[in-house]
Amino acid sequence: MKFLYSNETISDKELKIAIPSMIIGVGVLSLPSGIASVTVGSDGWIALLIAGILQMGVIWLMAKVASSFPKQSFLSYSAKLVSKPVAVVITFTFAVYFICVTAYDIRMLGHISEQYLFKKTPVEVVMLAFLLVVVYAVSGSRVGIFRLNILFLPIILIVAIVVFLLSSKIMDVSNLRPAFQTDIKGHMHGLYTSALSYIGISIILFYTSFVENPKNIPKVSIIGVTVPVVLYIVVYLNCILVFGQVGTSNMLFPTVDLAKRVDLPGGMLERIEALFFTVWTMGVFTTAMMVFDVAILALQSIFKKIKKIHIILFLSPLVYFIGTIPKNTTQIIQFGNYIATSMYIYGYLIAIVLFIIAKVRKGKSNGKKAI
Amino acid sequence: MRRRYTKKANWPSKNIKEQTSNESLNSQLDANIQKLKQLLDGPNDLVIREFLLNNNPTMKGSVVYMDGLIDKQLVQESILRNMKDFASNKKSYDTSKTILEVMYENFISIHSVEKGNTLEDALDGILVGKTVILIDGQTSALIINTKGGESRSIDEPTTEMVVRGPRVGFVESLGTNLALLRKSLQTSSLRFQTHQIGRRSKKSLVVAYVDGVVHPEIVKEVNRRIQSIDIDDAPESGFIEQWIEDSFLSPFPQMDNTERSDKASSELLQGKVVILLDGTPFVLIAPFTLGDFLKSPEDYNERWLIGTLLRILRYVAAFFALLLPSLYIALISLHPGLLPTDMALSIAATREEVPFPPVAEAFLMVLTMELLQEAGLRLPAPIGQTIGIVGGLVIGDAAVSAGIVSPIMVIVIGLTAISAFATPSFSLGISFRILRIAFMLAAGILGLFGIILVYIMVMIHMVNLKSFGVPYTAPFSPTMDRDWKDLILRAPMTILTRRPNFMNTKDVDSGSREKE
Questions:
Q1: B455 near B411, Cβ under 8 Å?
Q2: What are the tens digits of pLDDT across the range A302-334?
């Protein structure tokens, strides 16, 4: 009889929770304003829904590729598809991309906390404290990271639901109008903007080597993506219902401002935006932790001889440094847009190319067998 | 942390070890007695009773024991009297047998008798309360178990009071404790594995488990770690705990200790291992996870609804004990906007006279509380209560009137203290005390954000922590929702028909509802 915890793999359930934990982060805090500023009335949900379905498609492609090479690292299976040197370049680029995402997350968190939590504390202190916690998390076991997601995600979702329910008192249904007035260009723009909130789903390409049942990965990842898609639409509509389209588009972080308008029943606490943002820190943390971990994983697969802790110690100052580059709000948003664009061009392209090559190869080998 | 188990063997032992004697027994009785006396330095409590065999002056024998460690009546009735009979008996016995065998078969009426061949066997026996019979011309000795001496009677444990439940607690004697365990768990598959612990003072340690329930890997791991123990003496099971725990850097206890035999036996049936040490009423239970620490044996003795509510109350208490002072600091000093305006104003009014910032105020009060707790613990019960009254009422009230702390702070600290005492495990309570300080420091620096960062760090630590291979956060995460029936909730008894999934027990079901 084997001991339950002797081999540390990721179960379906853990992967199912890891994907929404990965996606839900800082993006949703500013998402409603980005969507509202390019669409008319409450039309943003269409773009969000289509973006969500697109993400499901992309993650399905990635999962399909990854699951056809069970228990293999990204580097080793991509080397089989597109020769070793190309695979090393792709892996390295992904690592750089993930490091940038980590830096962006940490910077964004520092920036929002400056807006809502502290007026005096320098943003660098907040960023550093947060980065150290992330470093502590990634230097533990990889299974531990997945267990953390399980502990944190329910809390985040519960807080989101509570804010939604409490704000129902101040909702105004007339804010939903006008409906279906946005032109195609606006929808396309909305589609692009919402992508920022899905950065990092490429982690699925890397984590599959630890998954217990690789066969279930495509199904499980689609279920995982559904959670943030629903959450995003609910949060967006919630903001529109409370602030209206114009109000929402004028705010930087309407989701946090939503919490500002809400009082706990019985007058226990008022203006809970500080509390909301504090809890949301957990969501940002799970994102940053997993992206950072995947960056380490990618580098580990390239530089096999270097110890994990050395990679972490080398990357941490780098992440901090990249995070401090943007000087103001505009630059931070710009930074985010670069990341989103590069994900569109690079991450998705790689996924599609790998999928096609895998299909063709498979077809070829099947054909040979048939002969 | 685990390195301890492997690296130890490489250390050269430089110090002079205790004088021991591996030599076998001499055929000369006098030489043996002399050697024994010399090794023990002829103490007063060593009793050597000589006798003649068959009234033959050349056939001498000795009964040796340590006064005070033996059961006097037993030695008197079953050894010394029989020896007298034997000495005066002129019957002839089977000559093919040695005189010791004859004695063993015909005259010793005690159940547990063994044969020893070396001086050390005899010496060790004498030191734990056994009686040794040495015969002139024989190179072996009879070692008879006559352990006795003064011991405490079975009482209700004072550290773990229950309203409803058996009033039986372990005592200092290992034999009695094993019997108590057998009494409360009447199954043939209850197993006891005995180890000897200690370089100089040899203590017996028993690993108890229910075969067929516990996962064999856990028993193997427990035994392996116990075999790695190398200390002079283990006066209390806490020494064992600290030797074999997974991480000595963790603030969390990774094993539970209890004085209650009913708790020990019910944990055995949950697939856990109980470690009993001679000389202490506290037994260890391993592996133990966070969820287990917030359970109390009493939860099962009351009806399920009450059990469930008590569990929820306990989780709330744990939250308060950990976070209340830090939340006070964060809300008052950094986020007053969160409080309702009226409340914020009234708090500000009461704090107007207080010269310190909330952090200093909170630390002052927490320190006072810790001092009161420590002082009350060490004093005899009647004075302890006085300390409680003096400390709690007088100092609290006076501090407020003197304007050193605000009344809200006193409420917060009072609530924290009460919540801390509501945690069923004392060891977990101590880790909460440590973490509370960490939360307060973080709240003083970064407010709510600091609290959440420390919370995340505690969680990171916990998901990486294991207790004998079992994740500390199981069954929360890794999620085993089947075990949630008996975690925060305590489902009705008829539903709790499975042993905990996270313990990976061999026998999964502990009952069934289908029985006619």
A1: no
A2: 999 999 999 999 999 999 999 999 988 889 988
Measured between CA atoms, how close is A196 to chain B, in angstroms? 25
Which of A1, A4, A279 would best serve as a mutation to test chain B binding (most B beta carbons within 10 A)?
Answer: A4
Type and span of the H or E element at B191: strand B190-197
In terms of Cα–Cα distance, which of B34, B30, B89 is closest to B61?
B30
Token digits for B219? Answer: 């028993």
pLDDT at A370: 41
| Separation of alpha carbons B327 and A348, rounded Å | 44
Query: What DSSP state is assigned to residue B330?
Result: I
Q: Residue B18 — very low, low, confident or very high, per pLDDT cuts 50/70/90?
A: low
Sign (positive/negative) of CA torsion B145, B147, B153, B155? negative
The mean-pLDDT minimum among A59-73, A169-183, A222-236, B285-299 falls in A169-183
Taking the CA of residue B443 and the nearest CA in chain A, the distance in Å comes to 12
The domain spans of chain B are 29-145, 174-288, 300-471
Q: pLDDT band for position A171 (50/70/90)?
A: confident
Contacts of B10 (CB under 8 A, 6+ apart): none
Q: Does A81 touch chain B (CB under 8 A)?
A: no
Which among A133, A150, A263 is the nearest to B457, CB-wise? A133
Comparing CA positions, the residue from A353, A356, A351 lying closest to residue A54 is: A351
Residue-wise pLDDT for B34-66, tens only, equals 888 888 888 888 888 888 776 677 778 888 898
Question: Touching check for A156 and chain B: CB below 8 Å?
Answer: no
Q: Which CATH class, in words, describes the domain spanning A12-362?
A: mainly alpha
E strand or H helix at B127, and its extent? Answer: helix B119-127
Residues of A in contact with B502 (CB under 8 A): 4
* C-beta atoms of B335 and A274 within 8 A: yes
What is the percent of chain B with per-residue pLDDT over 90, rounded to a whole number? 40
Residue A280 has pLDDT above 60, yes or no: yes
Contact yes or no for A329/A107 (Cβ under 8 A): no
What average pLDDT is seen over chain B? Answer: 86
Q: Quick one: closest CA in B to A278, which residue?
A: B449
Q: E strand or H helix at B468, and its extent?
A: none
> Where are chain A's structural domains?
12-362
Residue B7 has pLDDT above 70, yes or no: no
CB contacts of A260 in chain B (<8 Å) are none
Are B344 and B408 in contact by the 8 Å Cβ rule? The answer is no
- Phi, psi values for residue B206, rounded to 5°: -120, 130
Q: Measured between CB atoms, does B471 come within 8 Å of chain A?
A: yes
Q: Is pLDDT at A369 greater than 50 in this prediction?
A: no
Helix A142-166 × helix A217-250 angle, to 10°: 40
Q: Identify the bridge partners of residue B212 per DSSP, sorted by sequence position.
A: none
Chain A residues whose beta carbon lies within 8 Å of the beta carbon of residue B444 = none
Residues of chain B positioned with their CB less than 8 A from the CB of A262: none
Which of A335, A263, A354, A278 shows the shortest CA–CA distance to A67? Answer: A354
3-state secondary structure (DSSP) of residue B24: strand
CA distance A164 to A258: 9
Give how far B397 is from chain A: nearest CA, Å: 26
Q: Do A136 and B460 touch (CB under 8 A)?
A: yes
B466:A141 CB<8 A? no
Determine whether B354 is exposed, middle or buried from the number of CB atoms within 10 Å of its CB (0-12, 13-18, 19+).
Answer: middle
What are the pLDDT digits (tens) for B385-439?
787 777 777 878 888 888 888 888 999 999 999 999 888 888 899 999 999 999 9
Tell me whether residues A5 and B446 touch, CB distance under 8 A. no
Q: Which of A33-37, B30-34, B325-329 has the lowest mean pLDDT?
A: B30-34
pLDDT band per the 50, 70, 90 thresholds, residue B76: confident
